[in-house]
Prior knowledge:
heterodimer, A: alpha/beta, six-stranded mixed sheet, 16 strands, about 20% strand, elongated, B: 5 helices
Amino acid sequence: MRSYATFFVIAIMSLGLVFLLVTRSRSPHQAPAAVLEPAEPVTETEADGGVEGDAAPPLVASDAAVAEAGGPLGRPFRVTALGWEHVAAGVAMSDADAGPATPAVELAPEATLSAIEARLARSGDDPSGADVAILPLPAFVVAYERLRALEPRAFLVVGFSRGREEVRAAPRALLAPPPPGDEVKLVALGPGAGAEAHPWGSEASTVLGLFALDLLGVRPARVRLVAPASEDAKVAPFAAVLRGVADERKLALSTADAARLVPLVAIAPKAQLEAGENAYAELARAWLDGLAGAAKDASAVSRRLADKDRVPLSAGASGAPEAIVLLERMGQVEPLGIDDQAALFGSAPASLEVLAARTWQLARGGGLTTNAAPDPLPIDPRIVRALGVLPTAAPAPAAEDADAGVTLGAPPRNATPLVVYRADEASADAAEVARTVSFLAAVFPRAALRVSAKGGAKAARAIAEDAARLGAGQRISVSATEPAGAFAAVEVLSPP
Amino acid sequence: VKPPSSSSRAASGAMIRLMRIGRGIGIALGGAVSLLGVMALVGLVTDNFWARLIVALVVVVGLPALLAERLLRRAPGGGMGMVGDVYAIILLGISLILVSAEAITKGVLADEGDRYARSGSRAMARLTYFVAGVAPVFPEDRGADEPAPGGASAAPSDAPPGGPAPSPSAGVR
């Protein structure tokens, strides 16, 4: 009799438990992504990359111990990016053969700048937040005023945009003197348009358009940004759009030409960079290695991203584009390595500091942001230094060669003029023109430059030689023709 | 003494089998939920899987064994049947408490599911989320139409009648 009673008790308790489990209301829960653990335990030697000597600063032992426990932060780095193509390095990092010292990451590619800002605001401690964001420098400049409280800092340049942004214009419009009138219309993404993903424009394309017009002598304050749907768009002489957008205007210039104008930067809050310098250095090293790995097998990486196959995605990641689209986008990014960081965080003619100042100036003048560039600029070289890369100074001429002649080049035959920089007669300053020439030589790494100036060939040669001493190389030539209505003019010539 | 009829012997044998099955189900069901629950509680102290598993096994196996040993001293003829009953009742009791106290245990169990999800153990994660009473959405399951955390839409904005028109490869960045 007792056994019957216990049987009924057990049966009722079992049924009750099943009933409770099955009928309870279930709230949605965002499950985290799987974190790939290192294949082997991290030893101290492996954690510092196995590098001996002073090639790279070693990790401290405590960092290695923490890395063994699941990443330098004790959890995965959460990395968000403006576009799926920018997390390709993270996919390569997640491969089993990426090495045991590779930090674990969760990837959160986003389609909009506001989503990036939201993730950074949540911070990486939240599964829907982010520690690091990767985005084009113009987008960072636009987002900076909304993220100012976080004190975001650019600590790494992971690549350059290459051909994604285009300036379209009427024939020879970028070669002729600036259009008359109070304002110049440019079809481009305007201020306040960042809340949605735009199929035709971006902050970077707008900055490219403003840059081209600024070279031409049209200051950004004179430029009126118009939407493509407006009536003004039909008569606007210039358009700054993304590649692949159908536009009746002719392609005049793109970031394939100005291949060093739009850097893709990794940003993180200043406090996190200070607190986790070694951890961020390890992430930076692994990310740059991942860029190289992704470049070797772009097809497989784009397919995995499109299929979300073995991709450690963060909570709330958006939908991926198709593999063919991702493959095209990955081709529009020029990946950088550790060695490239030295010039960018140094004092080269187109260093990150120079590019940031220029981008801020253009964005402020064009109305993309309401604030002038902060002083100092939000750039933090500590991570690059921790990687063992010392920022380089601009090449200085030797004292005995300073007054010696500089060998100038000749313009390539059949070269096509892309854009003309015109220095105002009112602000006649040969040294400033020489600095601009060296900057243009750095921004247009394949182009030749032809300088002309008031005073003929002699004056032009003096400017060209000064620019060559500033590191512009031998891609500069001079023209004896004096520019009309300008103190000096510099033609940027695309090689045939 | 009147011998039992054949029909009553058959009923008794079937009942014994039914009782054994019920006992087995109770131990398996209660044991699984109790093990997950105790592991989740230990997870408040440490994330180490082996520490969680060993402590939970000690509790889930040791506590009913202790009680069964006490009962066997009082009723020596109980045998393995009584031990099984004790296990089933204790483990089901622990499970019912864990599941009934949803307000307290839901978060703890969901965290335990997160640990399995991070380690890549999808089946264990789903089982733990089921016990926790949550509906998990795994990163790979999230569709393209799900809004981003910022609440931003990925839809194109201006339709340009006279201006630039997007190509299939342009669009969402």
